[in-house]
Write a structure and sequence with these properties.
With 95 residues, the chain is an alpha+beta fold. The protein has three helices and three strands, in the order E-H-E-H-E-H. A three-stranded antiparallel beta sheet has the order 2-1-3. The relative contact order is 0.27. Its EC number is 6.3.5.3. Part of the FGAM synthase complex composed of 1 PurL, 1 PurQ and 2 PurS subunits.
Length: 95
């Protein structure tokens, strides 16, 4: 089974009250390194078999039409979870 991850974020010009609430709470909890927070959505789509370019294309279309509200949100990433994790490990020299 393959899995595709889709990340959706509010457009930059859209207010993000949840992100602002988290940003205000972080310093009170000892995390004063962060100056702002934007909260988005993450979807994990499981498919039978491997994640192919056709599957990624279908996930992109689903993200743009069903998983996000294009008026106020941007689809910021559609990726094969396993390939994405392998690339991260390789780039960090952990492979």
């Amino acid at each position: 089974m393959g899995r595709v991850v889709v990340d959706v974020m509010p457009k930059p010009e859209i207010l993000d009250p949840q992100g602002k609430a988290v940003a205000r709470a972080l310093p009170r909890l000892g995390f004063d390194q962060f100056v702002s927070v934007r909260q988005g959505k993450r979807f994990e789509l499981e498919v039978e078999g491997d994640v192919t370019p056709e599957v990624l294309d279908a996930a992109q279309r689903a993200a743009e039409t069903v998983l996000s509200n294009p008026v106020i949100e941007d689809v910021v990433r559609v990726a094969d979870i396993e390939a994405d994790a392998a690339a991260t490990v390789a780039s960090e020299g952990l492979a």
